[in-house]
Write a structure and sequence with these properties.
15 helices; 37% helix; 477 residues
Length: 477
């Protein structure tokens, strides 16, 4: 299945018409079985059976028979949902997340659950209970995180596309590190029902794929209102209609704060080359200032950890998941949480609990919320004068496994260009824009709330006039 591993959704559908959904699914499962990436933590035993059922009923639905990989924090009925953590080992949800209901209604075939940083806390997929996922471009490097498994299996040809979740860059970071496309939609545009919460006010489900067209096709399926999610917005967006190879007259804003200290020179050059390529295609650009962006990272981590402290309190071994024995109820919970949570999860629970504690709530959490408002105002102001913003997705290419995991602050700093977008709730897409030392670089295109059309059109036009997205990882070819 050599090059056929990297089929677009349109090509997969053509293969299904020529052969069958069963055969296409079986071929992907064969590739998964030979994988070195550790991208999947569970493979569906019902994938072939589901594909057979779709063949027997006829290929109705926009994704009929098309295989997809799902991040291991999105509930799929009958499949484990461990969030990469020992404390949820063996937990099988009795229901589907809203996005899974939509995918199944569209005829998609779920291949399996993908590896992730524990409870989506990380930028490297090294904190998973199941061990690190490897980057298809260099097996000694991280794939990014926390949706590193989803990005790696797409980049490695083990799924046409995948779902991840993005709390502070967890879709865009691995998309950039693995040389694929990843979208963080506007907050509220995709239901979070059935997604295990890390930080409710920041996270969104987002798609990962090898091209912008497949991202739009997947968004047309999973986007939309859901009454079970109180943050869901009833707003219809026609994602695929935005795919036009035309950005004449597009106004691009370049936030200078996203090109700050610590950015790799090759990354900066690749992003500026991309901006000039857009200029060649008829767009114009101007530099904009977002003075509160330097405070966004600190604000993000205080808010995210505080929400994590609240959300992860429910995991205690009492009702489901991993449980340690104890002489009484309090001892059982204490031992379960001590053994069940990994180092990074504990660190964030402790810091979040501290930030919310009496005497420190106003000093840290409330101040972080005020900074969040200022960051959002920066985006509103910058996007009032421009159509989209462009910046590096990540300041550096993928780093080596083990290089930063012992230094949390250095690891947190890698989110400097992605977490401001989650604070503001605006949409952002990462597309491949170049390479340095054989490693991919991502261009981030940021838009106004619910204006995915503009960033999809800009990303699509850039993609159609460059060849970065056509490159394949040599490690898995």
């Amino acid at each position: 299945m050599a090059e056929a591993k990297w089929m677009s959704v349109a090509q997969v559908k053509e293969q299904i018409r020529e052969s069958s959904a069963e055969e296409v699914t079986a071929r992907y499962l064969e590739v998964i079985g030979k994988s070195k990436l550790n991208g999947y933590v569970a493979v569906s035993e019902k994938a072939v059976e589901k594909a057979k059922e779709i063949d027997s009923k006829g290929h109705d639905g926009p994704l009929a028979g098309v295989p997809i990989a799902i991040k291991d924090n999105i509930s799929v009925q009958g499949m484990q949902n461990s969030c990469g953590s020992k404390i949820l080992e063996g937990y099988v949800p009795p229901f589907n997340a809203h996005v899974i209901e939509k995918l199944q209604a569209a005829g998609a075939v779920i291949l399996g659950k993908t590896n992730m940083d524990e409870f989506a806390m990380g930028s490297s997929t090294e904190t998973s209970h199941y061990g690190p996922t490897l980057n298809p471009w260099d097996l000694e490097r991280v794939p990014g995180g926390s949706s590193g498994g989803s990005a790696a299996v797409v980049a490695g040809g083990e799924a046409p596309f995948a779902l991840g979740s993005d709390t502070g860059g967890s879709v865009r970071c691995p998309a950039a590190f693995c040389g694929i496309v990843g979208l963080k939609p506007t907050y509220g545009s995709v239901s979070r029902y059935g997604v295990v919460a890390y930080a409710n006010s920041l996270e969104q489900v987002g798609p990962l794929a090898n091209n912008v067209s497949d991202i739009a096709a997947l968004m047309d399926v999973i986007g939309g209102y859901d009454s079970r999610d109180s943050t869901s917005i009833d707003r219809k967006i026609a994602y695929q209609e935005a795919l036009k190879d035309d950005i004449k007259g597009l106004k691009i804003g370049i936030p200078k704060e996203f090109f700050g200290e610590g950015i790799n020179p090759d990354v900066e050059k690749a992003v500026w080359d991309s901006i000039h390529r857009c200029e060649d295609l008829g767009a114009s650009w101007e530099e904009v200032s977002m003075p509160n962006i330097p405070y966004a990272l600190a604000s993000y981590y205080i808010i995210a950890m505080s929400e994590a402290s609240s959300n992860l309190a429910r995991f205690d071994g009492t009702r489901y998941g991993y449980r340690e024995k104890g002489e009484n109820w309090h001892s059982m919970i204490s031992k379960t949480r001590a053994e069940g949570f990994g180092v990074e999860a504990k660190r964030r629970i402790f810091l979040g609990t501290y930030a919310l504690s009496a005497g420190y709530h106003d000093k840290y959490y409330l101040k972080a919320l005020k900074v969040r408002t200022l960051v959002k105002q920066d985006f509103d102001k910058a996007l009032s004068k421009t159509d989209v913003l462009m910046a590096p997705t990540m300041p550096n290419p993928a780093f080596k496994i083990g290089e930063k995991i012992e230094d949390p602050l250095t690891l947190y700093l890698s989110d400097v260009n992605t977490c401001p977008i989650n604070l503001a709730g605006v949409p952002s897409i990462s597309v491949p824009c170049g390479f340095t030392d054989g490693l991919p670089i991502g261009l981030q295109v940021i838009g106004k709330p619910f204006d995915e059309a503009s960033i999809l059109q800009a990303a699509y036009a850039f993609e159609q006039n460059t060849d970065h997205h056509t490159k394949r990882p040599p490690e898995v070819a």
